[in-house]
Amino acid sequence: MIDTAQAVIEDVQQKAKQLPMPRGYKILCTIPNYEEKFDSGIVKADVTIKHEELLTNVLFVVKLGELAYADPSRFPTGPWCKEGDFILVRANTGTRIMIHDREFRLINDDSVEAVVEDPRGIRRAG
């Protein structure tokens, strides 16, 4: 059992090393997990979940680049978000990449439109 736990820990550590480190004013974000069922209990089709992920405007902040929010003339009140925040952005914002079947996005620091404490229940209108 200990060998299995150690293998899982090593696997997680190896995958963490594969995440890109945002540079400059970029922010690395990931897509929150989407519910696989509608509120009614009906299971969503894979294409429905993919569509929700593609057009999501809710992201989770993983890492800030070293120059994100560093310009006091552009951000006089300080950073608009921090690591661990859920944020709202425009749909299709950023450079989309897949790492181990999970979507990540690199966005500009000024793409953040709001911070939300709990993103459950938030979905794109339209």
Please tag this protein with its features:
6 strands, 126 residues, alpha+beta, 10 Kd Chaperonin, Protein Cpn10, Chain O, single chain
Can you offer a commentary on this structure?
This protein is α+β, with helices and mostly antiparallel strands and 126 residues long. It has a single domain, classed as GroES chaperonin (10 Kd Chaperonin, Protein Cpn10, Chain O), CATH 2.30.33. The chain is 20% helix and 24% strand. The chain has helices spanning 2-17, 46-54; strands spanning 26-30, 58-64, 86-88, 95-99, 102-108, 114-116. The protein has a 6-stranded antiparallel beta sheet, with no helix packed on it. Strand 4 and strand 5 (102-108) form a beta hairpin. The longest helix is centred in the N-terminal third of the chain and has 16 residues, at 2-17. The termini are far apart.
The count of β-strands is: 6
Number of contiguous helices: 2
Overall outline: globular
Question: What is the CA-atom radius of gyration, in angstroms?
Answer: 17 Å
Proportion of beta-strand residues: 15-25%
Number of domains: 1
Tell me the CATH topology: 10 Kd Chaperonin, Protein Cpn10, Chain O
What is the H/E order?
A: HEHEEEEE
Query: What share of the residues lie within helices?
Result: 10-25%
* Backbone structural class: alpha+beta
CATH superfamily: GroES chaperonin
Distance from first to last alpha carbon: 49 Å
